[in-house]
Design a protein that fits this description.
Elements (H helix, E strand, L loop, with lengths): L4 E4 L5 H10 L14 E6 L2 E11 L2 E9 L8 H15 L4 E6 L3 H6 L3 E2 L13 H8 L1 H4 L3 E6 L2
Parallel strand pairs: 4-5
Antiparallel strand pairs: 1-2, 2-3, 3-4, 5-7, 6-7
């Protein structure tokens, strides 16, 4: 089978992205308002990976990084993250934040460093995920907040 094609997400990709997120027990936060910052991997007509950036001025929030289990270890998640970070840079972001449960080492390879939730800039605190975790401190304790400076 040919390698997946990396491309900007379209509205019709949302159900496929949501299926991938659900399969990995990742949150289904609203996407439509930030779809311009999403990229997907498509293979044989199916969405097999996704990542998105929400932009808040000079800050971005990386979310929904997911690949189908068959693509793990193939570098496809790296392609998604690099494309999302490139989108952030091209659109004026200087810093990018995220939350992760189990992928801290993966994101650290891309330059992210662990921070505290209090280190998130005010605009990024308006993300759906930050607001939800602020109301659920038990869940927030299970996640690692991270930030990277874009060059």
């Amino acid at each position: 089978m040919p390698p997946p094609i990396l491309r900007p997400a379209r509205a019709e990709d949302i159900p496929g992205i949501e299926r991938l997120l659900t399969a990995e027990s990742l949150p289904l936060s609203p996407m439509a308002d930030f779809l311009a910052g999403f990229v997907v991997l498509e293979q044989a007509g199916e969405v097999v990976g996704a990542a998105g950036i929400e932009l808040y001025g000079e800050a971005g929030f990386l979310r929904s990084v997911v690949v189908t289990s068959l693509l793990r270890g193939t570098g496809q998640a790296d392609r998604l993250v690099l494309a999302a970070l490139d989108y952030a840079k091209q659109n004026g972001a200087r810093r990018v934040y995220l939350f992760t449960m189990n992928a801290g080492n993966f994101f650290a390879r891309h330059g992210f460093q662990a921070v505290k939730m209090d280190d998130f800039e005010l605009p990024v605190r308006e993300t759906w995920q930050y607001a939800a975790l602020s109301r659920m401190p038990e869940m927030a304790k299970l996640l690692t907040p991270m930030r990277m400076e874009l060059s």
